[in-house]
Write a structure and sequence with these properties.
Layout lengths: L6 H8 L13 H14 L8 E2 L2 H8 L3 H13 L3 E4 L3 E4 L5 E3 L5 E3 L6 E2 L11 H11 L15 H13 L9 E4 L2 H12 L5 E6 L3 H9 L3 E6 L17 H11 L3 E4 L13 H14 L2 E5 L25 E6 L11 E4 L2 H11 L8 H12 L1 H26 L4 E2 L7 E5 L5 H9 L3 E2 L1 E2 L12 E5 L4 H19 L3 H5 L6
Parallel strand pairs: 6-16, 8-9, 8-10, 10-11, 11-12
Antiparallel strand pairs: 1-3, 2-3, 4-5, 7-13, 12-13, 14-15, 15-18, 17-18
Helix pairs in contact: 1-3, 2-4, 2-14, 3-4, 5-12, 6-12, 7-8, 7-11, 9-10, 13-15, 14-15
Length: 493
């Protein structure tokens, strides 16, 4: 049965959709169509949802039916709406588009777009030699069926060594190789989170984690992070309010908590060791499993000392660590992993057989060679990211001095607090000048975080500077609208 959105519901989602005054003023119907496309872009309006009838939406928005009719016609022309006489209109994906890793609709042939929705680096030069070496070693595995649900032994041993070197003794039996970090999270959720179970996440957090939790029909509660890392209680949580976080665990007793303690995505915060220890203790007391996403653990910048892994403080097999090759190496290499107790790894492997059997052997061999060269690859990546971060910070401070941005000491993203609740509107406007953004609401629940924007520094410095210049230009156009319009509170479902 196709789901549908009522006129009043869509009106709340649309918020301040009217055409803005300025150099590129558009008719109201075009502004309405553009705002609906924006809702599709940031994931708040899904595909295959039936939109309200033209008359119903016109009454909810208090506009003429002609305006809605023209907007729907434009959406049909751009491929965002499919209509059938007597049956209604449904949201669709335009032909020739794909779903980008940011969740935004991306034209497959749009090579001029600066994509700041994707926080990942291009492949390192060492990837091709690693692939060649892996291909030469592949014959060793061709005599069997090629299914290794927990991963090939040499890769599991290499990953286990990396944990041991960080101060967390680990055996290969505690490692399961997956097809990326997102796959690792999905498998853990399938095993540990029944439908309707409570899950605690940070806010803001990784959008694809929220999508995975929604797919499991989890009851999501949030712990709010401070944008600057300075908490209201003045503690040293580096963005996490320790009292509120621990209180949420004790009071809500969630089945699982998903945390990103190393250079949190998107804020860049680094959780101190003392809070990690307290979180593990509170999770044990409340019967909560902790899923710790370590995607950015290899990317400290400025010589930032790293706290011990969260699992160091685990004495009761409550901590499940997940990580992967995407951020320090390359997103196209779909290798991730789970570190957990050996019995849990075996349970995950049994569950995995019903999903994808095993990760590709050739890609696992490539990962082995890249991990062996980590001492040369990772420092170069850190130096590259530090230079690009500084260039992005300088551009934002020069072009958008009203924005508030703290300096992240690791990871790949800035979390900017804007000078108004205009994140989604800015993302729509920036698309017109060739910059793709992931607006703040994608990183939270129910359309919140409109005052924030994630800016990754994974592109070359010159490209980042150009992108900020374009963003500043369209931000100026938004300023031409009445300031009161942006300061009025809006309900976003």
């Amino acid at each position: 049965m196709t789901s549908m959105v009522r006129g009043a519901q869509l009106a709340r989602l649309l918020g301040h959709w009217h055409a803005l005054p300025g150099r590129r003023r558009s008719p109201d119907y075009a502004a309405l169509a553009g705002t609906i496309r924006g809702l599709l872009a940031d994931g708040r309006l899904p595909l295959a949802v039936r939109l309200p009838a033209e008359r119903e939406l016109a009454e909810a928005l208090k506009v003429s039916r002609t305006t809605v009719t023209a907007a729907y016609r434009e959406l049909r022309e751009t491929g965002h709406l499919t209509s059938r006489r007597g049956a209604g209109s449904w949201t669709t994906l335009p032909g020739g588009h794909r779903v980008a890793s940011s969740g935004l609709w991306t034209p497959t042939d749009d090579l001029d777009m600066i994509d700041l929705g994707c926080a990942a680096l291009a492949a390192p030069a060492e990837l091709v030699p690693a692939a060649r070496a892996a291909a030469e070693e592949l014959p060793r595995y061709l005599s069997d069926a090629g299914y290794h649900p927990t991963g090939i032994m040499e890769l599991r041993e290499a990953i286990a060594r990396s944990y041991t070197e960080r101060g967390l003794p680990t055996s290969a039996d505690q490692i399961m190789v997956t097809s990326g970090t997102q796959h690792a999270l999905d498998l853990v959720l399938r095993l540990t989170v029944p439908a309707g179970a409570g899950v605690l996440v940070e806010s803001p957090t990784y959008p694809n984690a929220l999508a995975a939790l929604s797919a499991r029909r989890a009851r999501i509660t949030t712990h709010g992070l401070d944008a600057t890392g300075v908490t209201a209680t003045g503690d040293d949580g580096e963005g996490w309010d320790a009292d509120l976080l621990l209180g949420s665990l004790r009071q809500n007793r969630p089945r699982l908590a998903y945390l990103i303690p190393e250079f949190q995505n998107p804020t860049g915060h680094l959780m101190p060791a003392e809070l990690r220890e307290r979180v593990v203790a509170a999770a044990h007391a409340s019967g909560t499993d902790l899923v710790v996403d370590e995607s950015f653990v290899d990317l400290p910048l400025d010589g930032t000392p790293m706290p011990p892994p969260t699992a160091v403080f685990d004495r009761h097999s409550r901590v499940i660590s997940i990580g992967g090759m995407s951020k320090p190496y390359w997103g196209g290499l779909r290798i991730g992993w789970v570190r957990a107790s050996a019995p849990l790894v075996q349970r995950l492997a049994a569950l995995r057989v019903g999903v994808d059997m095993a990760s590709p052997v050739l890609e696992q061999l490539v990962a082995v060679h890249l991990l062996a060269a980590a001492d040369s690859i990772v420092p170069a990546r850190r130096a590259q990211l530090a230079a690009q971060r500084d260039a992005l910070l300088a551009a934002v401070r020069d072009e958008l001095p009203e924005w508030r941005v703290s300096v992240p000491h690791g990871g790949v993203t800035l979390w900017a607090e804007l000078d108004g609740p205009v994140s989604s509107a800015l993302a729509r406007a920036a698309e017109e000048v060739g910059v793709r953004l992931a607006p703040g609401p994608r990183f939270g629940l129910d359309g919140t975080l409109e005052r924030f924007l994630r800016l990754p520094f994974t592109l070359p410095a010159a490209v980042l500077t150009d992108a900020v210049h374009r963003i500043a230009a369209v931000r100026y156009d938004l300023d031409r609208a009445s300031r009161r319009q942006w300061r009025e509170p809006a309900v976003i479902a």
